[in-house]
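This protein record is not my work; I was only asked to verify it. Would you go through it and say whether the fold makes sense for this chain? Here is the record exactly as it was handed to me.
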Amino acid sequence: MTDRPALEEEAELHRTEVLVSTVLRVGVLVSAALVAVGLVIHLARGGTDPKVFAHFTRVPFDLEHLGTMVHGIAHLRGRSIVQLGLLVLIATPVVRVAMSVGVFVRERDGTYIVITLLVLGALLFSLTASLR
């Protein structure tokens, strides 16, 4: 005789693992696609000018703020689309950690809830602190 609740729990765990791996895979693929499309647009519009790296230059204003990045994406500016791809890549593991919190809450695993929330807090703090 098989233990039905144990089998259902194992099936649920497997579905969760598949979902998490799918989120990671899709995040990386979407990021790569956005970077590739942005690069093609940037190069197609004459973005081949040589850069001089002897002197430091600031990031262009249109790439420095989220609002101007969104404006650039709306106008199909290649560098803004590449930046969006990089933001998706950065956000992918953050989403994965946030999903893990939900998994541990459902499993009522207090230790891992606390640890995962600390990791999520550290990630979000580092991301928001870098915006200042």
The chain has one domain: 4-129.
